[in-house]
Amino acid sequence: MWGSKHELDPFTTFELFKQEQIDNINIINLQLKFKQFWTQQHPHQKKSDEIINDSCLCEQCLGKEESHIWSLQDGILHSFKEYLSKELTCEKYNIGLDQNLFTMNSDELSYRQKLTKYAINDCIAMQRIIMHMKQNNFNFKINNLFNYELENVSSDDEDDSPQPPPAHVHIVGRIRYPREWESSLINEQVSEHIHNEQVHEHIHEHIHEHIHNEQVHEHIHEHIHNEQVHEHIHEHIHEHIHDEHIHEHIHDEQPPSPPTHTELTLEEQARKQEYHEAKWQLENFPTTITGQARSRKRQQLKHIIKEYEYSIKYPPFTPAPYLIYHVNRTISDAILTQIITAANTTTFFCFDTESVIVHYQPNKPTLIQIEAILPRNYSIVIIIECCYLPSRDTFSFSLIKKLMTTIFNSNNTIYVWGEADELLPFKSYNLFDDKQ
Asked: Record's superkingdom (predicted)?
């Protein structure tokens, strides 16, 4: 979670969890840890008598004060030279992102896919930073921290981890699943070092291990017969291997070059025009606008300028492989049980939330994004659409609460970007209780 855990407080109205559950979460404030990490990794490099050294990456030379709090976007930018878009921060995440909720035209579907990708990337970006910190021997001061998830793994490495395997999860690629799966893959950029046959072999191995795990089998048997699930996932893994579109992404050695002026889409042309208009307005800002209105408007203009300049200077953020599930009133009990099983195979999660702005009122909580980090940096991302949950007296709702209880286990470690209080607004959804 990139922010405070108290962001979840308003979500308690949905009755998915309670305040006590939030209070008992084992939280790591990744935002503070990253600041410590950056200071350790990048001490000031003096250059003659100059205070600022252009080649130095210390906070001072980057223009950040000692009290400065790192944004997730800046963390990704300075660590990997990639652009994590924040253009959709203030969009309406309460419109229903899952295509199973409503009949949508192509424009509506495309817009929701952008919102979904934005919501997912904040979780995946935290995972990427955790991996980077661990690979550089940063000490999180928690026992048994990521003893397999954060290894610097190549596709040839043997996975001799004692940790349990992922449960019934096909993670890599973008595949159109049957409607009953009620999930869609939007991970369009797979790291170049992950080859399709090796991914198939790795996941297939863990599926077989999981099928023979009697305890997990007993847990899931009520809803999904293990051999049927195995056959279903195995079929889609083979589909992935023959998916030429994904194959091209896997073997891309360089990100695509930015389009030339003649190749700009209408959307890109509009963004470019907006950028130039924002620069002109900022340079010619009227003196008649004063106070908070002036400050807010200048901040909006600076945000537009920064986002555009980042987008043309750096390649887009590249997430690790993941599978996405939308949790709302359309999801089946079988899939919820499957997600719970998968969540039981790891103890490491990343949290984020989205809310919508309501004028003259507190922001309305709408989404909870949870990434369950599985072996070899694969993950599942769960998007809980709080405005479209099933009725609270249904078995489906009880399963969603069970999922939250599984994740909020005191033995688990949850990473947030900031304090964990951003969860507090979500108590109203009744998905967890105060003790969690």
From this structure: Eukaryota
> What pTM was computed for the model?
0.71
Tens-place pLDDT, residues 384-431: 999 999 999 999 999 999 999 999 998 999 999 877 677 777 777 877
Q: What are the sequence ranges of the domains in the chain? A: 6-158+319-432, 261-313
- For residue 141, give every residue at least 6 positions away whose Cβ sits within 8 Å of its Cβ, in sequence order, or none: none
Helices 196-211 + 244-251 axis angle, to 10: 110
The set of residues, in sequence order, having a beta carbon less than 8 Å from that of 232 and lying 6+ positions away, is: none
- Alpha carbon distance 116, 37 (integer Å): 30
Residue range 200-258, pLDDT digits in tens: 444 345 434 544 454 444 443 443 343 443 344 344 434 443 443 433 333 333 444 55
Alpha-carbon gap, residue 28 to 141, rounded angstroms? 10
The answer to whether the CB of 297 falls within 8 A of the CB of 289 is yes
Burial of 284 (0-12, 13-18, 19+ CB in 10 A): exposed
Helix axes 333-343, 395-407, angle to 10 degrees: 10
Q: What are phi and psi of 58, to 5 degrees?
A: -70, 160
| Dihedral over Cα of 357, 372, 38, 193: its sign | negative
Segment (H or E) for 372: strand 364-373
Query: Which residue(s) pair with 323 in the sheet?
Result: 380
* Six-digit token string for 239: 């589909």
Which is nearest to 133 in space by CA: 80, 86, 84, 85?
80
Which of 382-418 are b and which e, b meaning 16 or more Cβ less than 10 Å from the residue's Cβ? Answer: bbbbbbbbbebeeebbebbbbbbbbbbbeebbbbbbb
